[in-house]
Amino acid sequence: MIVFQKVTKVFPDGTGALSQVSFQIKKGEFVFLIGPSGAGKTSIMKLLRREMLSSEGTVLVNDKNLSEMEIKEVPLLRRKVSMCFQDFKLLMDRTVMENIGLSLEVLGVEEEEVEKRVAESLKNVNLEKKGNFFPLQLSGGELQRVGIARAIVSKPEILLADEPTGNLDPESAFEVLKLFKEINLTGTTVVVATHNVELVNKFEERVIALANGKVVSDSPKGKYELVKVEKRRKKS
Predict the structure, then answer these.
(1) Residue 228 has what pLDDT?
(2) CA pseudo-torsion sign 61, 65, 71, 73
(3) Which of 127, 146, 176, 220 is the most exposed place for a label (fewest CB within 10 A)?
(4) What does pTM read for this prediction?
(5) So where are the chain's domains?
């Protein structure tokens, strides 16, 4: 489903984000991307949604080379590869239901179908009673769940989350990760970039560790081995 083949990303100012990164993620996997700030986690997320292109190497999603993808194909890719953001990116002047349904409206989905799928998404994140609330009326954990509902309303094949628990208390963070796992169990491939040592260790999923833009370890039932990652970062 996802293939990185010797992917390197260098920005115009010469800053290197990724160096010869290779890994594969199969359909239905749950994967944590870990590593210190600047390790390359966010760059991987942006490459997967074609928000930027690699400098070298190949990024494949469903056997499609993203570097060869036409611009008109990008919206379809982003329906299949959805994203949850740390800062939620919700419209404050719209209700929860309106925020979730907006992407479907843009796609021209009929109003009745939009309402049905928004209601289904709200139920999946346990926010059935908050649909008419505005973002400012919700807690941080609830806002993150709204972001997840918005990301899954289009029924994506791949769900990406970049530091989804960074602004949450431990209890809310655990509930959000548990929700990602429940979504994963329905068949959705989930990739979570995080610094949260406790949650990575508690969920015991596949862990790809990055340091200085390189993959330093890839463990099927991994732990957040912070000391090892930091030592590798300093040596490289």
Answers:
(1) 54
(2) negative
(3) 220
(4) 0.90
(5) 2-91+150-235
CATH number (3.40.50.300, 3.30.1240.10, 3.40.50.700, 3.40.50.150) of 2-91+150-235 reads 3.40.50.300
Positive or negative, the Cα torsion across 152, 2, 65, 62?
A: negative
User: How far is 96 from 100, CA to CA, in rounded Å?
Assistant: 6
Cα 83 vs. chain centroid, distance in angstroms?
5
- pLDDT value at position 166? 84
Give tens-digit pLDDT for 52-61. 999 999 999 9
Chain length of the chain? 236
Phi, psi of 182 (to 5 degrees): -65, -40
What's the one-letter identity of residue 160? Answer: L
Instruction: Report the pLDDT averaged over residues 98-119.
Output: 92
Tokens of 121: 């998404």
Coil, strand, or helix at residue 56? strand
Count other Cβ atoms within 10 Å, centred on residue 219. 14
Token pair listed for 231? 């030592």
Residue 169 φ then ψ, to 5°: -70, 160
